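Project channel, design review

CF: Before we commit to the Oreochromis niloticus constructs, I'd like one complete example in the thread so the newer folks can see what an input/output pair looks like. Taking Myb/SANT-like DNA-binding domain-containing protein.
RD: sounds good, go ahead.
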Amino acid sequence: SSGIRHWTDDEVRALLCVWADRNIRERLKSTLRNKSIFQEMAQQMQRKYGVIRDWRQCRTKYKNLKYDYKIAKSAHAAGGSSAGSLGKYMKFFDEVEAILLDKGLENGSMEMQKRLYDGELEAGSATLSTGTSSISTGAFKGARLMKLTQDAS
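CF: and here is what came back for Myb/SANT-like DNA-binding domain-containing protein:
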């Protein structure tokens, strides 16, 4: 397995932030030949978050996240238990569910991205609060939030 690098949590969060963009989501839903969309996602990940992954890696991770989500969802359903979090089946379950089901994305992708990145998103919430969000320390997060803030103004 030469040259294969596992995705870090920060890299996955960057992919999720780019995927959460309404334009990207709608194009992925309506297009079968989607190489250009994943090329754009890879460029956005590098430009906005400093994450360097090629379009094939992004497409593979996207497909794996969707697959893992479906498996986690069915494993949870098979368990029949309403107690317990789906997070035990999949690390980014709530984030992927929010993106796939368009939950909590009504207020625009910037707030979604902040919350996604800070790990605050709950799939059950229909809308996102625009109140204060906890900002974690770390160079990557700090740079990312500054970039988000600059983009918004």
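RD: helpful, thanks. The helical segments are 9-19, 22-30, 35-49, 55-79, 93-100, 109-118, 139-152.
CF: Confidence is low (pLDDT under 50) at residues 121-150.
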